[in-house]
Amino acid sequence: MLFSQSLGVVALATLTTALPERKTLAEREVGKLPALGWNGWNQGQCNAASEKVALDTAKTFIRLGLKDAGYQYVNIDDCWSTKQRDSKGNLVPDPNKWPRGIKPVVDEIHNMGLKFGLYGDRGVKTCAGYPGSQGHEKQDAQLLASWGVDYWKYDNCYTECYTGNAADIQTCPDDKGPSSRPGYELMRDMLRNTGRDILYSLCNWGWDEVWTWGASVGHMWRMSVDNWGKWEDVVRIANQAAPILKYTQPGRYNDLDMMILANGALTPAEERTHFAIWAITKSPIILGTDMTKINSDEVKLITNKGLLAINQDPLSKPAVPFTPPGTPTKGNGEIYPYWSGPLSSGTVVAIVASKGNLDTKLSLSQVPGLKDQDYSWTEMLTGAKGRGRTVQAKLEKHDIAVFRIDN
């Protein structure tokens, strides 16, 4: 193993692999479809950044059927390292959290048929105050590759910002500081040059219009500030994503942030809408959930074969809002009520009860790309099937119906 507990030293493996062809990360095999996985931050923040939590979660993936449903990534967030680099400048796994180091844990998770992700930051420190990668990009990328890491979430805290005339090494205010793009491009190049395909997740909170350049840098990019797990956050993020979903394409995805279920803040109807909107907009689905607290209905939701098939459809065209003629427009604080998008075979149509209880019919001829003719349809959450020129949704407040329309 690369981490010696007795010496407290992390050694970089000798890299003998030839440099790969210089393509963007999104053009390589990893990340061709939206990532499906889990992130530990909401389970216990720094306390979840441990070998035990990583392995327990991997085993839970298998026990609950998430692996069989397509979930792959077990991702550890901030606080996994010590507060200081070693004498050679390497990141050091906290020996209290990782008594065997990182690589044996990665190997064990790989042997389960799953993948392992870690967290870093392009600034001098991570958001929780641990060593960032600024000035160590090449070294850190090589270390990740030597451990066999599959996924790298790269945050944006403690970068150089300017308040007046003084440099302020803190989290950048939204309207100040240089662009984050060069720092993300630098780490892209360092990851690429290791010769290992590592999924690269840009976490700059939607700054610098990242959706306009993220596709040339990474596989996925956060398009907003954090999802705090409330209904208002689901509405905010979905509505903010709507006009920029056009930048999503195969291997390049707007990241609507972690999927937060089982925290008590959302009703079952709101959880269904949260999951379904993330799925149909082709967001990566990274569960920000304490997997020890998730209930059977939530497991059924996150392993829904129909919704996951829509999310993983190889066409990778997101559903976007549309307004059927004669229907009211979205009000303030409401999620867009109608969404549709093409699939490699068929069309997805979603109806959200954004105001209150809803009982409505939708003529399929009002859906972009569909004609005035009969279609076969399946509702993804109930399994109901039918054929005709309309679909009907009878929903409680904040619930959703998702129809797969087949020609």
TrEMBL record:
Domain Alpha galactosidase C-terminal: 337-405
Record CDD domains: GH27 (cd14792)
Top-level taxon of origin: Eukaryota
Enzyme kind, highest EC tier: hydrolase
Pfam families associated with the record: Melibiase_2, Melibiase_C
SUPFAM superfamilies reported for this sequence: (Trans)glycosidases
Record GO terms (molecular function): alpha-galactosidase activity
Its EC number(s): 3.2.1.22
GO-annotated biological processes: carbohydrate metabolic process
Catalytic activity: Hydrolysis of terminal, non-reducing alpha-D-galactose residues in alpha-D-galactosides, including galactose oligosaccharides, galactomannans and galactolipids
Record key words, sorted: Disulfide bond, Glycosidase, Hydrolase, Signal
Signal peptide: 1-18
InterPro entries per UniProt: Aldolase_TIM, GH, Glyco_hydro_27, Glyco_hydro_27/36_CS, Glyco_hydro_b, Melibiase_C
Protein purpose: Hydrolyzes a variety of simple alpha-D-galactoside as well as more complex molecules such as oligosaccharides and polysaccharides.
Family in the record: Belongs to the glycosyl hydrolase 27 family.
Name by which UniProt lists this protein: Alpha-galactosidase
Species: Fusarium irregulare
Upper taxonomic lineage: Eukaryota, Fungi, Dikarya, Ascomycota, Pezizomycotina
